[in-house]
Amino acid sequence: MAVFDAVFLAEFRNNWRVLLVAFVCLLVAFSAPAFALPFLFSSVIDEYGWTREQATLLASAKYLTGSVVAIIIGRFIDLIGVRNVLIGVSIIGGLALVSFLWVSNLTHYYLAGVMLGIASPGTIVAIKVLISRTFHASQVTAMGLAMLGTSVGAVIVPLAITYLIAEHGWRTATALM
């Protein structure tokens, strides 16, 4: 057991930066789009007069896209590398959130949902591959610590988005996320 403990500690000491990046990516790139959307629907309905179904179809666009992306993202990781994919899906997610500043119709609104559908599962798959390729003796513990980013995000994002919507409106709040 003492040998494993030494290997375990050495692995964390050598790879803590990767773990920190994974945690932050899940906190920001995954949690912001995942946990902020339900807080936007009322504002969108009020601004555009859309029905609740039209407003919430954004989530369906996101999840439908995500189911397809989750299947094919591994191939992209094999072709261009896990870090490049992680950077790419994080940028796509950020652009999707910023694009809400200019939403003027349902098509643009749903396209933002499609972009979020690329970012969320893409982030999850890339993080899992990154952790599994970096950690060996402590892979499951490292994965648990990285995934903690989603739990922390589930606490922080609703608080942040409700505050930001109250202070700046739904468009700016979403872009700031």
Report on the structure:
By secondary structure, the protein is mostly helical. It has helices spanning 2-36, 41-48, 52-80, 82-99, 106-134, 139-168, 170-176. The longest helix has 35 residues, at 2-36. It is elongated.
What is the averaged pLDDT score?
92
Largest sheet: none
What is the β-strand count? Answer: 0
Determine the number of helices (DSSP H or I, runs of at least 4 residues): 7
Offer a few descriptive terms.
177 residues; mainly alpha; 7 helices
Produce a short descriptive summary.
This protein has 177 residues and is mostly helical. It contains seven helices and no strands.
SSE arrangement:
Layout: H1 2-36, H2 41-48, H3 52-80, H4 82-99, H5 106-134, H6 139-168, H7 170-176
Helix pairs in contact: 1-4, 1-5, 1-6, 3-4, 3-5, 4-5, 4-7, 5-6, 6-7
